């Protein structure tokens, strides 16, 4: 558990916790930027889209992944980055985050 807390602390401190707010619907999506990609975190449901969560948390091997802890810490401390996005981008971004990918910047 110690290393999970340390990693979560680092993620918060480094500004890797992001709250995406979609306009105009106001939908909110928590994302943690990890070493290998970006993961969707649902703090109320206790869900994260990272492989660690899928393979170790769901099997009961680990109590939680650090992304989930990072989002909870970030909310507690109000220390996260807010990113505004257009509703039109929502579904595609969700698809990337659920796969743990870093979404490509939209071409202009
Ligand atoms: Zn995770």
Quick recap of the structure?
The chain is of the alpha+beta class and 108 residues long.
Explain the overall architecture.
The protein contains 4 helices and 5 strands. It is α+β, with helices and mostly antiparallel strands and 108 residues long. The protein has one domain (2-98). The radius of gyration is 14 Å and the shape is globular. The chain has helices at residues 2-13, 51-57, 66-77, 90-98; strands at 17-23, 28-33, 38-42, 47-48, 81-86. The model has no long low-confidence stretch (mean pLDDT 94). The chain is 37% helix and 24% strand. The protein has a 5-stranded mixed β-sheet. A hairpin with a 4-residue loop joins strand 2 (28-33) and strand 3. The longest helix is centred in the first third of the chain and has 12 residues, at 2-13.
Strand content: 15-25%
The bound ligands are: zinc ion
CA gyration radius, whole angstroms: 14 Å
Structural class: alpha+beta
Helix/strand layout:
Blueprint: H1 2-13, E1 17-23, E2 28-33, E3 38-42, E4 47-48, H2 51-57, H3 66-77, E5 81-86, H4 90-98
Parallel strand pairs: 1-5
Antiparallel strand pairs: 1-2, 2-3, 3-4
Helix pairs in contact: 1-3
This protein binds zinc ion (ZN).
Zinc ion binds near residues 39, 48, 50, 53 and 68.
Which properties best describe this structure?
5 strands; 4 helices; about 110 residues; about 25% strand; alpha+beta; 5-stranded mixed beta sheet; binds zinc ion; globular
């Amino acid at each position: 558990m110690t290393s999970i807390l340390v990693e979560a602390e680092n993620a918060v401190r480094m500004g890797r916790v992001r709250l995406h707010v979609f306009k105009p619907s106001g939908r909110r999506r928590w994302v943690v930027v990890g070493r290998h990609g970006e993961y969707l975190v649902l703090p109320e449901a206790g869900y994260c889209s990272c492989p660690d969560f899928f393979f170790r948390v769901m099997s009961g091997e680990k109590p939680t992944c650090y992304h989930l802890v990072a989002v909870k810490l970030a909310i507690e401390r109000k220390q996260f980055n807010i990113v505004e996005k257009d509703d039109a981008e929502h579904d595609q971004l969700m698809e990337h985050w659920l796969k743990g990918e870093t979404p490509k910047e939209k071409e202009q």
